[in-house]
User: Fold this.
Amino acid sequence: MRLNLGSTRRPVKATGLIALTTDFGLDDPYVGILKAVLLSFAPAARLLDLTHGVPPQDVLAGCLALEAARPFVPAGTVHLAVVDPGVGSERRALVVDAGRDLWVAPDNGLLSFLPEGEIRQVRALEDPALFLRPVSRTFHGRDVFAPVAARLASGTPLESLGPVVDTFCRIPVPAAVITAEGVRGEVLTFDRFGNALTSLREGDLPAGAWNGRVRGRWIVGVLTYAAVLPGEPLCLVGSSGRVEISVRNASARDVLGLGRGEEVLVRPC
Assistant:
């Protein structure tokens, strides 16, 4: 989408904190290498691991993880976000000033959660002098994104990092739809406990008691996991503000056979 940029407000000031979000996992040395490069360019930087457990190549799951974490990360943080199934292709590498924080990421929809009104500046990373050489075709996190994130955290101004661009890739993130039957949504992703996070938010719920339906089964809406017996399904508003389909002490994905895109309906009891 094309952005309406041009804010004259001062760019956000980096504080030296770099927050990392990737799909690299912890079995391989990729995260350690990423941190080594960051500290080589910015020895005084502080590093915060948000998650390295985004499912491989799952841009939407990465987007949702960043959306959930962002409100709790201090202002002035440089976010290094790498979920990059198009690594080595013509997809752009970007740096984004989003008002309270800075983002270094591939232009593939990973930052779709950022409100357009908060985006002050977007620049394309094109200068080879900013990167490690040679640049690997398969590890831009190490060779492209990490050196730039470290420079930002050390105070390098955005203006020196690349030309301004006015387009920004966004992927559709499903939202609630009001129907005659109730408020309809869908399963977006799962956490490591097997809870299904949906496109429904707390503000989409009817006042008072409510139930949720998934795969033809009505499930009680409650406030806590402990409101039902172990092994029983439930719906609640999770810590991210999204409605979750869960099974107490078990995986809703496994027990209920849920998958991404599964329809969820909520309505008053």
